[in-house]
Specification:
Distance between the termini: 116 Å
Number of helices: 13
Number of strands: 40
Helix content: 10-25%
Structural class: alpha+beta
Strand order of the largest sheet: 4-3-2-1-6-7-8-9-5
Shape: extended
Oligomer: single chain
Largest sheet: 9 strands, antiparallel
Number of domains: 5
Length: about 700
């Protein structure tokens, strides 16, 4: 018996405590008063709040929490709030949460002197009155007259406590109209809950039907719906939240001839389909349109009118032209294989932020190849077919591409490349036929160059000592230890921009290697644009050939090495540049004695001497147009007299456009393109007026 005594005592104490708490549940304890002695409400039991009633301006707002509710909007834990007055509907959980926090955290802004008229007397009706119900405890409150300080504050009393002053925030919350607490969500179902989504506008009807938990197909076609288009539609639904609430009569009138009609069918057959219509502009809200939810429960709102345009998706844009529904970041494994195993399959698996190779050899990829693998996966994920049609019948496959994301697998079967440079892929998920060009087709078959590092010379660290350019203007530059100098054509100063070209050719990044060999379709010709790089040891010079534009860049091949790559167009532009110094027109400021300007053959009064010197010292051309003198008669001539008795420098320019002039320097066979803005300071008179 003694060994059970302790247990019996603990049970008795627990029962006593429970009885005490039960009896005390509808009273404010001294502990609660002490903890909240500086609060507007001397008691606040957050978990027990089940009802808030506020009466003001001939309107009674009643918010009640249903503890038994459990919905998909994240309100199941504490219960869903509903408005039961002045209308019966779901309450906006964000607005209710904001009200609860405001009342719970409301503090005494200042105390009120006894006997002061504060608008809480029986003869003075309060601006607002109500009660907060916490379990079996009800705490009444009243909001009195405005208080002179702090700004926006009001007199207030909760329960039988003395009057106090509360902040502007509390005042605003208690005087807010009932629309503040109306549910802003017009669309009753989340995208994940839908089995079908239908949009009707004009004579057009588009509809999506759920294919699986992650995908939709376009109704009537059986084809996979575009992930991007679906995302746009879901975004439009998310934007369809109430900015304001129209009157019922206005809602009916302004949606009588709807611009857009939506029908949302949930996966749960026990739930009714939703029907929403979008109509004309909301009264008083010209940037919104009226949205009327007819089913399953009527609701009207003013929503941003941009959703009307977003929902009017074109039927052709709904079909997925990408091969897979996974984005690049979602692809965890990729396998490319060809029938017969020649070339061998390539298999990649994500490792950290990059990829590990599983086949043809299991190995960790060095950084340069890991970068190429990431680029390959990105290009495959973002490849877009020219056209997509519904399949049917057998499909002659020469290989396939398989991707995994988690436990999900998707397969593309690859057809042969035709003589016209076109091929067909089969997307197994929806049996779609994707018509693709050769560039896209090559990404889906294993290649020797699939993981080749994305540099032109592939790790060749040698620095060329001689560069021969054959891309329009023949040029040759040689580096004898003092930087590159233009040796052919002779007699010109060299432009430093040759260094970026050499750097880009030797170690610059390219877009991707796209083919193992030139099949004649890449636009290379025997007399086409090319650059020869010769190295100090005289061994193994390379020639970089430029072909046609394609795949966002320009095709390039490197003799004598195999393979075709895509490089930025800017690299070809550098190869076509003329490397005569773009500073040939400038004159050192300290050498300038006088500047004379003639426009249309007439002298021009130019800016002050300091501006003249600064302008001529900074007169760099944007590019060299040709190694010939400018054509046509000049409309602007600049004569610069230099110190030390040197010959005057004469620059003749002709306008090509409002922003460009072609200029030449006497004694130099070259035409330079100069921005008008570089010459403009010479044509500004001392008084600031343009000449």
């Amino acid at each position: 018996m003694k060994r059970h005594a302790t247990t019996i005592v603990l049970v008795v104490l627990a029962l006593a405590l429970g009885v005490w708490l039960w009896v005390d549940r509808d009273r404010v304890t001294e502990g609660e008063r002490k903890r909240r002695e500086n609060s507007a409400f001397v008691v606040w039991r957050r978990d027990e709040v089940t009802r808030i009633a506020i009466r003001h301006d001939d309107e009674t707002i009643v918010l009640e929490r249903d503890r038994a509710s459990n919905d998909k909007r994240g309100e199941g834990k504490e219960g869903r709030w509903r408005m039961t007055s002045p209308r019966e509907e779901r309450a906006d959980p964000v607005a209710v949460e904001r009200l609860l926090s405001t009342l719970e955290l409301a503090t005494i802004a200042r105390k009120v002197a006894a006997g002061a008229a504060v608008g809480l007397e029986p003869s003075a009706p309060p601006r607002a009155a109500g009660a907060v119900t916490m379990g079996s405890l009800e705490v009444p409150f009243v909001l009195g007259a405005p208080s002179p300080q702090p700004e926006g504050s009001s007199y207030f009393r909760a329960s039988d406590a003395a009057p106090i002053v509360v902040s502007k925030e509390v005042t605003t919350a208690l005087l807010a109209p009932s629309d503040t607490y109306r549910d802003r969500a017009v669309v009753p179902y989340l995208a994940t809950e839908l089995a079908r989504f239908e949009v009707r506008y004009g004579v057009t009807t588009i509809a999506l039907e759920r294919l699986d938990e992650h995908s939709f197909r376009v109704a009537g076609t059986g084809l996979l719906a575009s992930r991007t288009a679906v995302a746009r539609l879901w975004a439009a639904l998310a934007e369809m939240r109430a900015e304001a609430f129209p009157k019922d009569a206005d809602a009916d009138r302004l949606t009588a001839n709807p611009t857009v009609t939506l029908v949302l069918t949930p996966k749960d057959a026990s739930k009714a389909p939703a029907e929403l219509v979008l109509g004309e502009a909301c009264p008083g809200h010209p940037s919104d349109v009226v949205v009327l939810r007819k089913k399953p429960a009527r609701a009207a709102a003013c929503a941003p009118k941009d959703v009307v345009v977003a929902l009017q998706e074109k039927p052709d844009a709904l079909v997925e032209k990408l091969p897979f529904t996974f984005g690049m970041d979602e692809i965890e494994e990729l396998r490319l294989e060809r029938a017969g195993g020649d070339p061998p399959a390539i298999e990649l698996a994500r490792k950290g932020t990059g990829f590990h190779q599983r086949a043809p050899v299991d190995r960790d990829l060095p950084p340069a190849e890991a970068d190429a693998a990431s680029e390959l996966v990105t290009r495959i994920a973002q490849s877009e077919a020219r056209a997509v049609t519904r399949g049917g019948g057998a499909f002659p496959s020469i290989g396939r591409a398989v991707v995994h994301s988690g436990e999900r697998e998707q397969i593309i079967e690859v057809g042969a490349l035709g003589a016209d440079g076109r091929a067909t892929l089969r997307r197994v998920l929806d049996d779609a036929r994707l018509e693709v060009d050769a560039a896209m087709w090559r990404r889906f078959v294993p290649r020797a160059t699939s993981l080749r590092p994305r540099t032109i010379l592939e790790g060749d660290a040698r620095r060329p000592s001689r560069v021969i350019l054959r891309c329009g203007t023949d040029q040759e530059l040689v580096d004898r230890g003092e930087g590159f100098r233009l040796v052919s054509p002779a007699g010109y100063e060299t432009d430093g921009a040759i260094v970026p070209l050499v750097d880009a050719l030797v170690r610059g990044h390219i877009d991707a290697w796209v083919a193992d060999a030139d099949d004649g379709s890449f636009g290379f010709t025997k007399d086409g644009c090319h650059v020869v790089l010769v190295f100090p040891d005289g061994n193994a010079p390379v020639t970089v050939w430029f072909g046609a534009e394609g795949e966002g860049g320009v095709y390039v091949r490197v003799d004598p090495r195999p393979g075709v790559l895509v490089a930025p167009r800017s690299l070809r532009d550098l190869a076509k540049s003329i490397y005569v110094s773009r500073g040939s027109l400038r004159t050192q400021a300290e050498r300038i004695e006088r500047v004379r300007v003639l426009a249309e053959g007439k002298p021009v009064t130019v800016a002050d001497a300091s501006t003249q010197r600064d302008t001529m010292a900074a007169l760099f051309a944007d590019r060299v147009v040709s190694l010939k003198k400018p054509e046509g008669a000049p409309d602007l001539v600049i004569e610069v007299t230099v110190a030390e008795g040197g010959p005057a420098r004469r620059i003749a320019c002709k306008s090509i456009s409002k922003t460009e002039r072609h200029c030449g320097l006497d004694g130099l066979n070259a035409t330079f393109s100069v921005a008008e803005s570089r010459l403009a300071p010479l044509l500004i008179a001392p008084d600031g007026g343009a000449r």
